[in-house]
């Protein structure tokens, strides 16, 4: 039986694409705010006994969670068979430990919340660092997909003699895999984060790669401080301006412009979060597991 897809606000484009690929149905729901700011939800499609898929990428998650929760609860009241969530970007994966006494480990709390709302989850390259798999966090089945093959394909097609560079040890898992798939060399830097917007990276040993195009690869670009520091260090050491590739275009306010200003030759991201830098499509990766 084919699934019925419901986009949460701002997820219509990806949802339509998935529905087209899978020849499935798109459900009709009204989700809006009352004048007092509270959320109104109404489902207009007959969903009783059906498997439904909610599509909601989760950057700026605090604003998205309540409409998602209300829609899921409404669908349950309408007796759906199951609810899956497609969240190409999964939030709250970075506060995965208590760094300072008294801090909340929000990765856990967020996972607990989502696990109580939907029956299963599909996401792309969640920031698994101190947690090694989703089962350590989520109590529902969670399918993790990887953008690495599509990044490798893009790099091979668009970059001359690439040298992949990971800005920190956390990026090693992505850089190593993409480099292997693209069959190109890679280096990883050391990074120290002193605050939300204060990051320092060490100088890499790149003398042997002077004729290569540096390609920075990371999972998330948020404040872009990690990429900016790396770009600035590289400028002193290698002639070519780097291509900056991030899976998830989180981009805090002013971050994209600051990265351009810092000297990135090109900034490329996947469409896990809609952004003008999206050049790598993840639609078919998602559709494959939703078949
Ligand atoms: C953390 O280690 C991640 O892999 C990214 O390097 C980090 O999230 C990037 O954040 P920002 O753009 O704020 O430096």
Describe it.
The chain has a 6-stranded parallel β-sheet, with helices on both faces. A 6-stranded parallel β-sheet has the order 10-9-13-14-15-16, sandwiched between helices. It is 30% helix and 26% strand. Helix 3 (106-115) links the parallel strand 6 and strand 7. The longest helix is centred in the first third of the chain and has 17 residues, at 61-77. The model has no long low-confidence stretch (mean pLDDT 94). The radius of gyration is 20 Å and the shape is globular. The chain contains 8 helices and 16 strands. It has helices at 12-22, 61-77, 106-115, 148-158, 172-182, 225-235, 255-262, 283-290, and strands spanning 4-7, 25-26, 29-33, 39-43, 51-55, 82-87, 120-124, 142-145, 162-166, 186-188, 191-195, 198-201, 213-220, 243-248, 266-270, 278-280. The chain is of the alpha/beta class. The chain binds ribose-5-phosphate. Ribose-5-phosphate is lined by residues 167-168, 170-171, 199, 218-226.
Secondary structure: helix percent: 25-40%
The spatial strand order of the largest sheet comes to 2-1-5-6-7-8
- How would you spell out the order of helices and strands? EHEEEEHEHEEHEHEEEEHEHEEH
How many strands in all? 16
Report mean pLDDT, rounded to a whole number. Answer: 94
Shape, per Cα inertia axes = globular
């Amino acid at each position: 039986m084919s699934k019925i897809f419901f986009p949460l606000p701002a997820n219509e484009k990806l949802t339509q694409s998935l529905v087209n690929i899978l020849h499935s149905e798109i459900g009709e729901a009204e989700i809006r705010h009352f004048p007092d700011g509270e959320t109104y939800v109404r489902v207009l499609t007959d969903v009783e006994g059906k498997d439904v898929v909610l599509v909601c990428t989760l950057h700026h998650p605090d604003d998205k969670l309540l409409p998602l929760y209300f829609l899921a609860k409404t669908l349950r009241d309408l007796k759906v068979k199951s609810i899956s969530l497609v969240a190409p970007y999964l939030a709250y994966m970075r506060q995965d430990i208590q760094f300072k006494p008294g801090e909340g480990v929000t990765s856990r709390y967020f996972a607990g919340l989502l696990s109580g709302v939907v029956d299963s989850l599909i996401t792309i390259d969640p920031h698994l660092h101190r947690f090694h798999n989703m089962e350590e966090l989520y109590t529902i089945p969670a399918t993790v997909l990887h953008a690495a093959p599509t990044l490798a394909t893009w790099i091979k097609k668009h970059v001359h003699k690439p040298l992949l560079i990971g800005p920190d040890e956390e990026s090693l898992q992505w850089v190593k895999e993409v480099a292997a798939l693209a069959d190109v060399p890679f280096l990883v830097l050391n990074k120290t984060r002193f605050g939300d917007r204060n990051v320092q990276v060490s100088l890499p040993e790149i003398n042997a790669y002077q004729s290569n195009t540096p390609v920075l690869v990371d999972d998330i670009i948020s404040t872009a401080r990690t990429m900016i520091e790396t770009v600035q260090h590289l400028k002193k050491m290698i002639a070519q301006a780097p291509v900056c590739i991030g899976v998830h275009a989180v981009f805090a306010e002013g971050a994209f412009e600051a990265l351009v200003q810092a000297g990135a030759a090109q900034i490329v991201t996947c469409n896990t979060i809609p952004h003008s830098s999206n050049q790598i499509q993840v639609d078919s990766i998602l559709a494959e597991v939703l078949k």
